[in-house]
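ok trying again, last paste got cut off:
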Amino acid sequence: MKSNNKLFIAILIGLILGVFAGALVYYRVPDSAPVFAKNIKLLGTVFIRGVQMIIAPLVFSTLVVGIAKMGDIKMVGRVGGKAIGWFLTASLVSLLLGMVLVNWLEPGKSSGIDISTLESATDLVAGTHSFSLESFVIHIIPKSLFEAFATNEILQIVVFSILFGIALAGVGEIGKPIIKVLDVVAHVVLKMVTYIMWLAPLGVFGAVAGAVALYGLDIWKLYAGYLADFALGIVLLWVLLLTVGYLILGNRLFTLLKRLASPLLIAFSTTSSEAVFPKLTEELERFGCDPKIVSFTLPLGYSFNLDGSMMYMTFASLFIAQVYGIDMPLEKQLLMLLVLMLTSKGVAGVPRASLIVVVATCAMFGIPPEGIALILPVDHFCDMARSMTNVLGNALATSAIDKWEK
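nice, full thing came through this time. structure:
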């Protein structure tokens, strides 16, 4: 517990120093800002790549062991059914919340933004495609386990791990040596987590300093309406999530939030909910969740339960449509909502992954995908909030399912 507090304090110090250093560069030596940001962000890159290095083996080993130790295939189906039910409901509520807010507040109709002065989105648009059922199916089913491992395709790893875990449980005694080996692998990888997490303060410092050096503090004034409306959506989503969490967990919710302090701050600072996956696994088990439930539910959540990202996707897509004056009747918005429900599945909580989905969806509905340039300058700050919300949503989902099973 003392080590956890020290890490939290170190991360907080890294966040504050990052803001100070970035602001100093932006206001004192603005000409050096691009070079400074490029170099200082390497600290964040080192941390995030260190975490990404262990994501695939951690997901595979913990998920396979969790399913195999359950033994009872009915239990796997029961837990999986509850998890998918939670994920779909939370995703639908999040998407609807974003849609209602952007239609009510209409930030795009009063933005006053000069499109010609904005950052080019050519690089982001390149390589994106309109949604198709074929591309969705291909994205789910791994062609090769090694390819999925190499590219950190969490959803594909989850699909293979579930099948492998069920088969391993089905062979009985002969599969126990493999279960023991993978159990050891899981413990070794979790030990690696404790080492890598001490890079978090440096990663936070680098990520925040780079963003502030490029955009400065005045960026909040430039996009005040957009950011304020999105922040309101995040607050409302947190209220909904915490209310549901309190109804299920009672006063233990506050204990869980204390456990989540470091993961939430890391996700907020690094804009990556994937970066806290190992730490989140550890904290949920310390909270008292069954390791089998955690190892089964949490990887699924990272593919199917990105509440903050879901709310953002409808909000951002319709915001761009408003700026360009594109009429989006209710039936078209609802169709977009269903498309986002599909295209977003399997998108891990890595920086700017939501933007890729927004671009693909805009292309499908006749909204200029170049409009993503409207939100690029402030997306880093939005990404902070949605990444943190993704972590909270997955922690609550796992804790709730664990309680239902008990």
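cool. The chain has a mean pLDDT of 79. The chain has one domain: 2-405.
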